[in-house]
Amino acid sequence: MQKKVQRNKSQCTDVTWAGRADCAQCAIRSRVLFADVSNEELEHVLLTIDDIAYAPHSVLYQAGEKGDSMFTIRRGLVKLVQYLPNGSQRIVRLLKTGDVAGLELAVGRTYKHAAIALNETHVCRIPKTAIEHMGVDHPHLCHQFMVRWQRNIDEADRTITEFSTGPADVRIARLLHHLALPGEDGHCQVMGREDMGSILGITTETASRVMADFKRRGIILESSNQHACLCDITLLHQVANS
Amino acid sequence: MQKKVQRNKSQCTDVTWAGRADCAQCAIRSRVLFADVSNEELEHVLLTIDDIAYAPHSVLYQAGEKGDSMFTIRRGLVKLVQYLPNGSQRIVRLLKTGDVAGLELAVGRTYKHAAIALNETHVCRIPKTAIEHMGVDHPHLCHQFMVRWQRNIDEADRTITEFSTGPADVRIARLLHHLALPGEDGHCQVMGREDMGSILGITTETASRVMADFKRRGIILESSNQHACLCDITLLHQVANS
DNA sequence: CGTAAATTTGAATGGATTCAAACGTGGTGG
DNA sequence: CCACCACGTTTGAATCCATTCAAATTTACG
Question: How many residue pairs bridge chain A and chain B with CB atoms within 8 Å of each other?
Answer without folding.
Answer: 103
